[in-house]
Amino acid sequence: MSEKKKIALLGSTGSIGTQTLEVVEAYPDQFEVSVLTAHSNANLLIEQALKFKPNTVVIVDESKYKYVEEQLWQNDIKTYCGEEALADVVQMQEIDIVLTALVGYAGLKPTINAINAGKTIALANKETLVVAGELITKLAKSKGVNIYPVDSEHSAIFQCLVGEFHNPIEKIYLTASGGPFRGQKREALLNITKAQALKHPNWSMGAKITIDSATMMNKGLEVIEAKWLFGLKSNQIDVIVHPQSIIHSLVQFEDGSMKAQMGLPDMKLPIQFALTYPNRFKTNFERFNFLDYPELTFEQPDLETFSNLALAYKAMDKGGNAPCIINAANEIAVDAFLKDKIKFLDIADINAQTLDKATFINQPVYEDFVQSNQEARQIASDLIG
Ligand code: NAD
Ligand code: MG
Description:
Elements: E1 5-10, H1 15-26, E2 31-38, H2 42-52, E3 56-59, H3 65-72, E4 78-81, H4 83-89, E5 97-100, H5 108-116, E6 120-123, H6 126-143, E7 147-149, H7 152-161, E8 169-176, H8 194-197, H9 207-215, H10 217-230, E9 237-241, E10 247-253, E11 258-262, H11 268-276, H12 307-318, H13 322-338, H14 346-357, H15 366-384
Parallel strand pairs: 1-2, 1-5, 2-3, 3-4, 5-6, 6-7, 8-9
Antiparallel strand pairs: 8-10, 10-11
Helix pairs in contact: 2-3, 4-5, 5-6, 6-10, 6-13, 9-13, 10-12, 12-14, 13-14, 13-15, 14-15
This protein binds nicotinamide-adenine-dinucleotide and magnesium ion (MG).
The site of nicotinamide-adenine-dinucleotide (NAD) has 27 residues, from α1, α6 and α9.
C-alpha cells in the first residue's frame, strides 16, 4: 500500500489553486493537503481549510490573520500570516510536494526554500524561473529535486519527452493561442479596455496571466521558462500561433521526428500529471473529437504588435538579471493597466524602457535579484507617474 502524497498548495484560492483542489478531491486515496496559502481571500481559504483539513494555512495579508485564525483553531489547523511565514511553511517535514500556484516574483523565496528542504516542485509560478532560472535549476540539481511543469505548454513538452530523456532535443515549438487580439495591428489596440483584454478566447485564468496572454508577454515568459526547464538555447525555442489551443506544444528531435501533445484545453490535466508523474490517472474530462476541429491552423507571431514577445527573447539573450527586470516592470505595468492608470500598449513600452534604465548585472546572486526586482519596480512606477 502506498502512502498518500502530501501537498503544500501555494496560492490555493486562485485559478490554478482551485483546480488543483478539484484534482486532489478526485483522488482521496492518493493525495492529502498539508498546507494551503492565499494572499487575501480569507473566506475562500477558510472554506478550503475546513474541507481539506490541512495541518497549516498561511494568509499573507496580515490584516486578515485574526479572522482566519478564529475560524480554524478549533479544527486543529494552525494559522500564520505574512510573507516570511509563506516562505517558511514549505519546509515542514511532512510535505512531499510543493505546488506553486501563486502569481509573480512572490514565488521565488518559497520555491528556493522548498528546494533547499528537498521537496519536489510542481511549478505553475513561471515567474520564478523567469526571474532566477539559472539559480533555481542549479539549486534543484544540487539537491536532487525534480521540478515538474504545470504550465500546459511545458507539460506538453515534458509529456513528449517521457521515454526520450536521453535523446537530445533539436528544438521545441511552444504554441500560443494569440490571445483576444490576434490578427490586430497596433492602431487597433490603442484604446483597448480592461474588459476586452480580460476576455481570453480559450482559457479562464487569473487576471495577471490573462493580460499577459493579451500582450503575449505570457508567451515570452514561457520561452524563458522553457529555456531553464529543458536546458535549451534561444535558437532552439520557437513560438507558433495556434488559435485552437489543441496542440499544447511540440518537440522536434535530431532525426527530424516531431512529437506533439494534444487535447482539449483543460489545466486540470497538466496539474494532475505534475502530481502523478510517471503515472496517468483515469479522468472523466471531456475527450477531443476530431470532427469538432476539422482544421488546426498555425501562424507566425506578430512581433511588432506584440513586442513583449520580442522583448522577452531580448532579455533572455542578454541574460543575467535582464529577465528579472522585465518581469518586475511587467508586474507593475499590468497592475497599472488593471487599475486604468495606463493604456494597453503602454505595458510593453514600460517593460522595454525599464530594461534600458535598470542596472544590468551579468552574474546575479539571490540578493541581486531582490535588489533588481525592487529597482525595476521603482523605475516602472516612476515611468507610470
Ligand atoms: P490567480 O490570480 O487566479 O491566483 C493567484 C493565487 O496566488 C491566489 O491564491 C492569491 O491569493 C495568491 N497570491 C497572489 N499574489 C500573492 C502574493 N504576492 N503572495 C502570496 N500569494 C499571492 O492566478 P492563476 O491564474 O492561478 O496563476 C497562478 C500562477 O500560475 C501564475 O504564475 C500563472 O502564470 C501560472 N499559470 C496559470 C495558468 C492558469 O490557467 N491560470 C496556466 C499556466 C500557468
Ligand atoms: Mg501556458
